Amino acid sequence: MTEPIACTGCGAILQTEDEKAPGFAPAAALESEMPLCRRCFRLRNYNEIQPVPLTDDDFLKILNTVGDSKGLVVYVVDIFDFNGSWIPGLHRFAGKNPVLLVGNKVDLLPKSVKEQKLKNWMKAEAKKLGLHAEDVLLVSSFKGTGIGQAIEEIDRLREGGDVFVVGCTNVGKSTFINRIIKQVAGEGDIITTSHFPGTTLDMIDIPLDDGKSIFDTPGIINHHQMAHYLDPSELKAITPKKEIKPKVFQLNEGQTLFLGGLSRFDYLQGGRTAFTVHISNALEIHRTKLENADSLYSRHLGEMLAPPSGKSLEGFPRLVRHEFSIKEGKTDIVISGLGWITVQQPGKVIAVHAPEGVEVMLRPSLI
Ligand code: GDP
């Protein structure tokens, strides 16, 4: 067996097999005198950070370090996957440190959405989950929307201290930090890495003017995220880069909508009414009769009803049924990681079938 080679940047053991795991490097990099993993290479040469997932254990160690340090915790979540972005117990790890909640991917929201309503909902959900957020901001790291305000808020709330940016994988944390680096630091060669105590993983240290730093912590994989059930090309289809176009369906009782093969919406009771579907424009919606829905799903999953298809069919979980009776006003039925369906009027009974582990919940309509 050959000796393991460690990355001279972060100390991770280099490997050439798994692009997504720590220490990945192209084979040629292993020949170098100062071998670097791809992540450190990109950081050194382009000042660009790349996401790297890590084990739950390492992640907990890192979070403990954050709790023991004094500073502002910037918690990045995906507004389309609020629950899938949630780090359980974060409030405990944050300790006494203030938390700024940043909802990313605001560019995907249709114009009809009232941002204040979304912020209020996020703040209330966070509170339910035990986290007091000092403030909630909405940004598009992709387009740069709200980044200036985020920088100002970070500067105000950190009160001269360090900043720790945390988040699950896929929420856009790397894109967020890269934006901040470009805006705060310009393109200069200022980023360094240092080790998290007790782990092989580095944290990225972006120095601030007053000697303090912004630390990027590696992302944790939340296994309930819809994202982990799909392959990368399918994931692209369900997380679009473009603003969502709401689609209105007039349904009778006993009709079903399939959202690709990922979820199913059954209209059970309440007379003919309109529902507005807010999901990726790329995902096909099929309407059918409720009585045919089970057999349609078993016959056409992976073909007409896709994604999932091909390889991702193998590990795809069964759909679990969630029934809701809509009592008040306009209500959104939120399917974490996918989008939401607005029920225009109260007094309707609905069932949503979503992959096991994926959260389905109600919230007051954002429109
Ligand atoms: P990380 O794993 O949290 O570091 O996430 P990345 O920064 O790698 O982003 C995950 C995915 O979300 C990528 O496909 C990004 O292009 C996309 N993404 C990140 N930020 C935004 C955003 O503001 N809007 C949109 N539409 N997509 C984004």
From TrEMBL:
PROSITE patterns for this protein: G_CP (PS51721)
Molecular functions per Gene Ontology: GTP binding
Pfam families named among the record's database cross-references: MMR_HSR1 (PF01926), YqeH-like_C (PF21516)
Alphabetized InterPro entries for the sequence: G_CP_dom, GTP-bd, GTP-bd_ribosome_bgen_YqeH, Mito_lipid_metab_GTPase, NOA1/YqeH-like_C, P-loop_NTPase
Signal peptide: none
Domain of life where this protein originates: Bacteria
Residue ranges occupied by any CP-type G domain in the UniProt entry: 60-223
NCBIfam families named among the record's database cross-references: GTPase_YqeH (TIGR03597)
Protein name (Swiss-Prot/TrEMBL): CP-type G domain-containing protein
